[in-house]
Amino acid sequence: MGIPEERIERLLPLAREAVVAGEYDRARTYVRRAKRIAERNRARLPREFERRTCSDCDVYLRPGVTARVRTRPGRVVVRCLECGATHRYPFS
Amino acid sequence: MLTPETLTRHELVGLPVRVADARNADSVGLAGRVVDESQRTLSVRTASGDKRVPKSGTTFEFGIVDRPRVGPSGDARSRSATPDDAPTDEAAGDRKVPGSTFELGPDTAGVRPRQSRPSDPAAAGESPAGDGAASRSLGECEDVVYVTVDGDTLLSRPAERTERGVSVWR
Prior knowledge:
The structure holds 2 protein chains of 2 kinds. Chain A is an alpha+beta fold. In chain A, 46% of the residues lie in helices and 18% in strands. Chain A has one domain (3-90). Chain A has helices at residues 3-20, 24-41, 47-52; strands spanning 67-72, 75-80, 86-90. A 3-stranded antiparallel beta sheet of chain A has the order 1-2-3, with no helix packed on it. In chain A, helix 1 runs antiparallel to helix 2 (24-41). Chain B has a domain at 1-70 and 141-157: SH3 type barrels (Roll). Chain B is built from 4 helices and 6 strands. Chain B has a 6-stranded antiparallel beta sheet. Chain B is globular and about 35 Å long. Chain B starts with 15 loop residues before the first strand and ends in a 20-residue tail after the last strand. The chains are: A alpha+beta, B alpha+beta. Chain A binds chain B through residues 2-4, 6-7, 10-11, 13-14, 17-18, 21, 26, 29-30, 33, 36-37, 40-42, and chain B through 1-2, 6, 9-11, 13-14, 35-36, 67-72, 158-160, 162-163, 166-169.
């Protein structure tokens, strides 16, 4: 695993910590940097990263704090409480 | 892995840092966690707020930790416990934070044995073993290695830092 992947991996817990501390914008800067690193180095964002960050406003999604998580038949619906964007992913 | 060799190309946010030398005499001795990084500056979270330090003309000492944190409580604690002291003390202070997620690495066999400080009840309580083991663990938890970096080598956009020779496809 190269340095870009490691940096992305390190940034996710930092974003989480920022949300826990209530500093959403700091979480956004970390998430945005991770996304930027991914695109510059052709590294994939881990699935965990995709699902725990809002693709619209880049905030870290913490259920109950910055996100609402509900299940619909066959999928999970995650709504960002910061910007209102909805993400869905399937489960079986 | 974050090693002294890769540090300048790696993610600096979350690492404990101390300003060893700077053109601005006021920022010498600042210690805390890196909270943000821009092209020409580092923001350091200290007990007395976030400080923005220019990279150029500054010498930083980074602590290499596996689990980056920015936790302000830990820094406040370490600052109060050990004022402007050696960076090793700063590391001990971070470790003292109750509820910290620190775990001993596999190679806990005394990399650099150090004395346990008298004010370490939390750290002692952290390890289930006896008193001696606790003090040992305190001394040796030292996977924390400190690296001195000339700030001029960090001058670039953080997101592009990995470009130097790391990418395979280009």
